[in-house]
Amino acid sequence: MRIIDIHAHYGEWFFPIYRSSKKSIVEMMNHHDIEAVILSSSKAITYDMVEGNMDLDMILDSNKGLYGYVYVNPNYPELSKAEIEKYLANPLFKGVGEIHPDYSGLPVDSEESISILIEAAEYRKPFLIHTYSLENVRALVELVKKFPDNVFIAGHMGGTVASGTGLSWKKAIDAAKEYSNLYLEICMTLFEKGKLEEAVDKAGADKIMFGSDLTLLNPAHTIGMILSAEISRNDREKIFYLNAKRVFRL
Amino acid sequence: MVMQTGKRRIVDANTVFGAYPKRKTDVSLKNLLKIMDVNRVEKALTTSLKGAFYSYEEGNEETLKACRANNRLIPLATVDPRRFAGDRGEIENLVGSGFKGIRLFKDIQGYPLDYSPLIEIIESMNGLGVPLLVPCNEYGCITLLSRLTAGKEYPVIVLGCTYSLLSEFIVSARRNRNLYVETRLLTSSDAIEVLAEKVGADRLIFGSGILLEYFQASYRMVESARIRDEDKDLILSGNILRIIKEAC
Q1: Contact between B188 and A228 using a beta-carbon 8 Å cutoff
Q2: N or C end of chain A: smaller count of CB under 10 Å?
Q3: Which tens digit of pLDDT belongs to each residue from A71-122?
Q4: What is the C-alpha separation between A240 and A101, in angstroms, rounded?
Q5: Which residues of A touch B218 (CB under 8 A)?
Q6: Within an 8 Å CB–CB cutoff, is residue A229 touching chain B?
Q7: Is the dihedral of CA A221, A226, A229, A233 positive or negative?
Q8: Residue B3 included in any domain
Q9: Per-residue pLDDT tens for A211-242?
């Protein structure tokens, strides 16, 4: 089983998670047969964009399958544009992400966010966007429509709503079906049974990619979901590996 | 892809069956048994969702009936504190009728932990010798649960503990020897290892959340954890069997 993990992180967390070093990440990759990971900096997302991107840049290594996302913070549009210019032409940086509206406090379709994305869009690299609510999905769809020549990925596939109805992931699936430039990435804490089958059925296995949220989350969790889902072997291979290889040109 | 559950004994402490009104999904008893077969689950503690969504009395009857018809199923009763009027004999009767524990659906029913009917249930269970299973999914919940059950003579299993509640469980479990944690949402990259080291593998209980969740998502976190094989055996079956006093 070959795996490419398109949603991973480098850096510390404010929880008792101690496996976060470059060495630990490589060990986890080997343990779970993960060939490549695309990381964003937890420090950049939760605290300091510039310092976080710099930390990440220092550990990227194609020989070990370690690639990166440039993180941008819409509260600092000019600084974000400078980060894009600094890193995004580097082939080790495969995209922009994980753009996180909950940490920045700004929706991804805000004026500030769009001004940054206009700059980044020229590089034609995918955008990984955190989605964990109906509002997150709505804002992402606005971007997808505004930038039809760029690939967007709904991180967490819309996420889970407390009501247990699956409304946010169902909305993300519908959007991925409607827009050819929108993909789904499937990691989340709570895997409501049936969501992956529904995504494959409606959006198609070609539009779904494996992500783990490593090191925040354990890759075994999402791998297990994919193995439990009632989908074909071919679809699993697309989700685990082939789609990411194509989309990220790995 | 083959299901990799190997030869280890698996007893799943968190399963449900019945009907699910929130979205279309097959949560039938037949499907529960099928998924147990596919994943080589030897036994499952289970509760009818009728008790979570509709009537706990009717739900408990349904649970007992299902478990009497299939000896791989171990019945957990539920009580809805929104309806429970404080009759302590009611809890005793449930245990007397064959239930091996009391499972709450606080996550579905929405009441707080600091809630008189629930506190009465907690008090009523003392001396009955069966575990109480309580969902905790917000900051402070485990802390309060630990206070409410300190000094009681029965195990308390925290359901749905996530990485954000990990430190709260660790500190609470060191203070309160009654506390156990279900592994289903211990999803951070090293949560199983961290807990095994900080509080001991004998405090971890495997639960999958089937039929509402995917079995392998929770199973593989335990199976792939970097802990001793003996500890995996405790987590996947030994601890819960000891707690419910089933023959090993």
Answers
A1: no
A2: N
A3: 999 999 999 999 999 999 999 999 999 999 999 999 999 999 999 999 999 9
A4: 26
A5: 221, 224
A6: yes
A7: negative
A8: no
A9: 999 999 999 999 999 999 999 999 999 999 99
Q: What predicted TM-score, i.e. pTM, was given to this entire model?
A: 0.95
Domain count across chain B:
1
Does the distance separating the beta carbons of A189 and B185 come in below 8 Å? Answer: yes
Residue A176 contacts B, CB cutoff 8 Å: no
Mean pLDDT by 10 residues, chain B (248 residues): 68 98 95 98 98 98 98 98 95 96 97 97 95 97 97 96 97 97 97 98 98 97 97 98 76
**In 3D, which of A38, A200, A48, A213 has the Cα closest to residue A130?**
A213
B2: in domain: no
Going by the DSSP 8-state scheme, the letter that residue A193 receives in this structure is: T
DSSP result, A66-82: EEEEE---TTSHHHHHH
Q: Is B174 part of any domain? A: yes
Chain A within 8 Å of B196 (Cβ-Cβ)?
no
CA distance B96 to chain A (A): 33
- Looking at CATH, the fold of the domain delimited by A3-217+234-247 is given as TIM Barrel (3.20.20)
